[in-house]
Amino acid sequence: MKMANSLRGEVLNLYKNLLYLRRDYPKGTDYFKRCLKNVFLKNKDVKNPEIKELIGRGEFVMKELEALYFFRK
Fold first, then answer.
1. How far apart are CA 9 and CA 18, in angstroms?
2. By residue range, what is the domain housing residue 18?
3. What is the pTM of this model?
4. Is the omega angle on the peptide bond into residue 26 within 30 degrees of 0, that is, cis?
5. What's the pLDDT score for residue 3?
6. H helices present in the chain, as ranges
7. Complex 1 LYR protein domain: from which residue to which, for each copy (predicted)?
8. 64 part of a folded domain
């Protein structure tokens, strides 16, 4: 059960970090939040080890967004 709680924490942390990045999204914060919520809800029933893969993908998206924002400024 501890592993599940650990992954849950990672997922929540990823969601919060991505949500924070919406502030500079070119199509607007509402659009970003809606898309983010849909993606997380679509994957809510995913089980371990696929969760780790999706977390990795989410972290990649986060880095890409940060790079996009960096180059826009």
1. 14
2. 7-71
3. 0.85
4. no
5. 58
6. 2-21, 29-42, 50-72
7. 10-62
8. yes
Angle at CA of residue 42, ends 40 and 48, nearest 5°: 75
Unique residue bearing structure tokens 């999204």: 25
Dihedral sign, Cα of residue 59, residue 64, residue 70, residue 73: negative
Count of domains for the chain: 1
Residue with tokens 């501890």: 2
Residue 14's nearest CA partner among 54, 50, 46, 44 is: 54
Domain presence at residue 2 = no
- Written as six digits, the tokens of 57 are 């993908």
Token pair listed for 14: 């990823």
Please say whether the beta carbons of 14 and 59 come within 8 A. yes
Which parts of the chain register pLDDT below 70?
1-3, 73
For the chain, the farthest-separated pair of C-alpha atoms sits apart, in whole angstroms, at 44
